[in-house]
Amino acid sequence: MASQDDLLAALGRFSEPALYILISLADGPKHGYAMTQDIEAVAGHKLGPGTLYGAIARLESRKWIEPLPAEDRRRPYRLTAAGQKVLRHRLESLRAVARVGRARLAEAR
Amino acid sequence: MTARQLLSLYPRAWRARYGEEFLETVGNGALGIQQIVDIISSAVDAWLSADVRHATRPANAVAAGGSTMTVRAMICRTKNARYTTKDSLIGAAIMIALAAIFALTGNAAARGGWTVTSEMLKTLSFSIPFSLSMPFWLMKGQPWKAQVAIVGGTTAFLIVIGYVAAVT
Fold first, then answer.
1. Which residue in A63, A67, B105, B108 has a CA-CA distance of 20 to 30 Å to A2?
2. What are the domain boundaries of chain B?
3. Hey, are the CB atoms on B21 and A69 less than 8 Å from each other?
4. Chains A and B: how many Cβ contacts under 8 Å?
5. Which helix (H) or strand (E) holds B94?
6. ipTM value of the model?
7. Structural domains of chain A ordered from first start
8. What pLDDT, in 10s, does the model give residues B29-71?
9. From CA B156, how far away is CA B27, in angstroms rounded?
10. CA of B73 to nearest chain A CA: how many angstroms apart?
11. Beta carbons of B56 and A57 less than 8 angstroms apart
């Protein structure tokens, strides 16, 4: 059975944008424009609109995020329980990798 | 080039599901080169990705609760008409443009002394443009793998036939 990391990595070039979207939605629902603004502020990375909706479609098809009723022409999305699980696992994995990287850097000094 | 124009590159189901919010996200400002490239490459992805097709299936799009009228109109069109007048015009324009390219390239090849190539291009100046235009109208809505196989296979056979006709 594929691990949670594999599930996110299976999104290919959309795995990083998808991770940003999951992180952006972790503190509450947001629509597309709010997500791009939040991701730029948090990660310093401006997602193109095509990439954003390519990643949203993939996350939606996996039921990691779900759409809420539209507000005017903007549709907010929220993280599902499955999406929270995937995000939590991915962040734990990244933390472990960062810990090893920092330790190796400290040894090299 | 505007976001609305680029949106027309996406599949109809995608436009019905994400079109409005996509335009709202992009805004009305001028698009940069990076944004244009991003939108075009993602349009190709939207045509090819099974995930994206799944997310934009009419049933899922209606369940998402947005653009319901657009989605219903899309379902009706799918049932009642295989392709629209706009699709036919796009197909015809592609056919004419490609036929002109074949004819001009054929003439240039003749002037350059490439007789066989010139003959091939002139012989195929209708059939290959017609074949390549099919995905935009006659085959619209069919699975992309079927389109690639049928158009690719037909084009390959036409090239062989054109070559044989040119050298014999």
1. A67
2. 3-80, 85-167
3. no
4. 85
5. helix B85-111
6. 0.85
7. 4-108 (1.10.10.10)
8. 788 899 999 999 999 889 888 888 888 876 665 555 545 555 5
9. 43
10. 18
11. yes
